[in-house]
Amino acid sequence: MTGLRMTVAVAAMVAGLAATGVASAHETLDLTAPKPNLAATPPMGWNSWNKFACNIDEGKVRAVADAMASTGMKDAGYQYIVIDDCWQTERAADGTIQADPVKFPSGIKALADYVHSKGLKFGLYSDAGVKTCGGRPGSAGYEFHDARTYASWGVDFLKYDWCYTGPRNAEAAYTIMAKALRASGRDILLSICEWGDNKPRDWAAKAGHQWRTTGDIRDSWDIDEGYSHSFTWILDRQADLWKDSGPNQWNDPDMLEVGNGGMTAIEYKAHFSLWAMLAAPLIAGNDLSAMDQETHDILTNKDVIAVDQDVLGQQGRRLIDDGDFEVWVRPLAGGDRAVVLFNRSAAAKVMSVDWETLQLPAEMKATVKDLWSKQVTKKVKGRYSAEVPSHGAVMVRITPTV
Ligand code: GLA
Questions:
Q1: CB 41 within 8 A of CB 313
Q2: Residue positions annotated with a catalytic role
Q3: Contact 302/76 with Cβ under 8 angstroms?
Q4: Which residue among 48, 49, 131, 195 has the greatest number of ligand 1 atoms within 8 angstroms of its CB, and so is best to mutate?
Q5: What's the pLDDT tens digit per position in 246-272?
Q6: What is the pLDDT of residues 131-159, one digit of tens each?
Q7: Ligand 1 centroid – CA 205 distance (Å)
Q8: Exposed e or buried b per residue across 216-246, where buried means at least 16 C-beta atoms within 10 angstroms of its C-beta
Q9: Distance between CA atoms of residues 235 and 229, nearest Å
Q10: 330 alpha carbon – ligand 1 mean position (Å)
Q11: Among 102, 220, 304, 306, fewest CB within 10 Å belongs to which?
């Protein structure tokens, strides 16, 4: 049955149900709706959680939207302003989810309109369980109702979490929300936040545009506690996932911590460089309305962002893992390679990558651009070497020449 026929048939059925007084929550469901093409390259934006957690309100969201538009972040490609957990309180008598009237007195639609007026897109958070991780109402059983509400508010992006799901099957739960979003009448990107526990690599690409591969990131080089993991711990769990990723189906190693204060500028540059190598969604997690110049310059490095957003959409791999010394490589459209030399040790180290590792002929000359210092070296033959600071990354773009 075609989508149109299905809609007509369902509409007739709903009319019949209405005549007998039976309401249906599924009247707009189109089972054949394809996944909308909303993430040909990894999504870029901002999310409230890493900086503000539950301490979020409409004033902060507006200030961040203003900053994204005025600081060059929007020009660099950042687009989504996403409110994470704790914007909700309870459901109205008719089941409609409601924003906290104290923290969001103007309502979510007004906030989405404001974000849209800045030329940006707007995102919200919910959960496949009965409650969100922060204890607010989840969407279990209300998927279609919530998706329609989000569409009516102008939501463009939904982060959908996995707390309080009990024995629910993850694939089924995320598929229901995917169907609900596709039937909502609005294009809404689905960001799956299931933490990688139920093999999302086997099913998540059908439902969503990106999926988390681990528990939560914390703003730390190497401190891990419970479900909260350091940048390096998360990075180690991405090295084998490159085959799963591609346009509209990105591995999500969690949001950025750049600028939140727990790491050095060198460590933040490594974090940002490696997330770009992973073709990760680049979702800033700092307070954009109060960031310093160094944070701004890391987050808006256009050469690094160009690697993340490369249209080939092939995730980078760790080709050399020599204890503290790693070489990551990402093939780019047109034949260039992005390379990161990553030094986890306590001292600076001269590191190198040879052309064989990059699958280039040994005698080939290449142009190498350092994406942080911006230095360009021409006619490099055989290998590229650079001194890499402790806990740092040297990131280069290698262009073969004839
Ligand atoms: C989970 C998610 C986080 C964040 C919180 C909100 O821990 O993984 O990214 O959304 O819930 O409560």
A1: yes
A2: 161, 216
A3: yes
A4: 49
A5: 999 999 999 999 999 999 999 999 999
A6: 999 999 999 999 999 999 999 999 999 99
A7: 20
A8: bbbbbbeeeeeeebbbbbbbeebeebbebbb
A9: 10
A10: 29
A11: 102
Tokens of 139: 């969407």
Residue 4 pLDDT greater than 70, yes or no: no
Q: Which residues pair with 260 in a beta bridge?
A: none
DSSP letter, residue 335 = G
* Token pair in block for residue 317: 């791999």
What are the C-alpha distances in Å from 353 to residues 41, 66, 73, 157, 338?
A: 27, 42, 32, 39, 11
Q: Is residue 10 over pLDDT 50?
A: no
* Distance of CA 134 from the midpoint of ligand 1 (Å): 8
Tell me the percentage of the chain whose pLDDT exceeds 70: 92
Q: Is 216 in the pocket of ligand 1 (CB under 6 A)?
A: yes
Whose alpha carbon is nearest atom 8 of ligand 1? 216
Residue 117 to residues 66, 113, 125, 189, 230, Cα–Cα distance (Å) = 10, 6, 21, 19, 36
Contacts of 55 (CB under 8 A, 6+ apart): none
164 lines ligand 1 (CB under 6 A): no
